[in-house]
Structure formats: C-alpha cells, structure tokens
Amino acid sequence: MSTEGTVTKEGLNLILAGVERRAHVTSAGWASAAEEGAALVRALGQELSDRWDGRESVTWMRENGSRQWRQTEWFGWYFEEKVRAILNDRWPTPPVGGPRVKYGSTFFDYASPTRVWDAKAHTAQQVSVPPDGRAPRNGSKFAWLNDSEAVRACVADQGLGFIIIDGLAGMDQTGAFPGLAHTIRAVRR
Description:
Elements: E1 2-3, E2 6-7, H1 9-23, H2 33-47, E3 51-52, H3 54-63, H4 74-90, E4 102-103, E5 106-107, E6 110-111, E7 116-129, E8 137-138, H5 148-157, E9 161-172, E10 184-187
Parallel strand pairs: 7-9
Antiparallel strand pairs: 1-2, 3-10, 4-5, 6-7, 7-8, 9-10
Helix pairs in contact: 2-4, 3-4
C-alpha cells in the first residue's frame, strides 16, 4: 500500500474512508443512519416502479447477469438487485476502505461509503390472478432477514440497516408464468 514515506492512491482512500467513518460524516453529507436511510428510501422511491411484472423482472435479472433469475422467489432477488443497481449508481460502494459486507457466507446487499444495508421484499398480502372469488390472504407478519450470526457480527462491528418493502402479490392461477408468479405493488411508508 505505502512504502518509504509515500502513500498510494489506494492507501490514501483507505485513510480518508476511516477518517470519514470516525467523524461520522460521509461525502454525501449524512450525519446519522436515520438521515442516510431516509435518503436511500427516497432514491429507491424515485426509481423503483410501483408494479413489478414477474416475466419482465426475471428477464431484467437475466439480462443484467444475475445468478438468481431462475429462483421461484424472484421478487426478493429482484428487489435486492435493483437496490444495488440504483444505490450504487447514486452512492457507489468505495473500492477500498468501505464497510464490510460479507460475514461468513452471508453477503449484505449494499454498502454506502459508511454503512451496510440489507434489502428484503416482504409479501404483505396475496391475491389470485385472475380473481378466484376468495378474499386476499395476508402474508406473514414476519419478514425473514438474514443469518442471525452474520447479523449480530455486522451489528457489533459497524451497525446494519434494513430496507424492507411490503407488497401486494398477485399469484398466477393460470400457470402462464412458470413457478410462482407475483406482481408486487409497493406499499410506501
């Protein structure tokens, strides 16, 4: 990194990232996790569609090199990948000196210049498409997060925030879309 009184660009970036974290200020101007979280949610709200078509979303993931495009719970993977794409475009993860995103085999979804965030899509309610006459079913009251050991370690090391989207899922009853077909309609809070 550095030799005999010289500092490489990588070394300087590492030092500056450490100073920013120590001072609790980022180049984006966030002084707190709450400010940062609000900015991230605003950015996602501006760029994420309110409606996610299963076929279009899976095609987007495949065309963008996702290894998860074949998963039946595509909406969760789609959300995570859109979060990374949108937020890294606005606030790129630092190439060196940024927060740690991997704990064991768990990868958290996004690292801003100072904090780690994990993205989760949660089905708040399910309806049949086309309608089958049954009332909408409520989704789970709970959202699965990540490996508890990884979460605890990340929180202890540097903190961790969650970006969770609740949605209405349209369950395909026709079989036209292979696997589970969902249409997520974002519920903004």
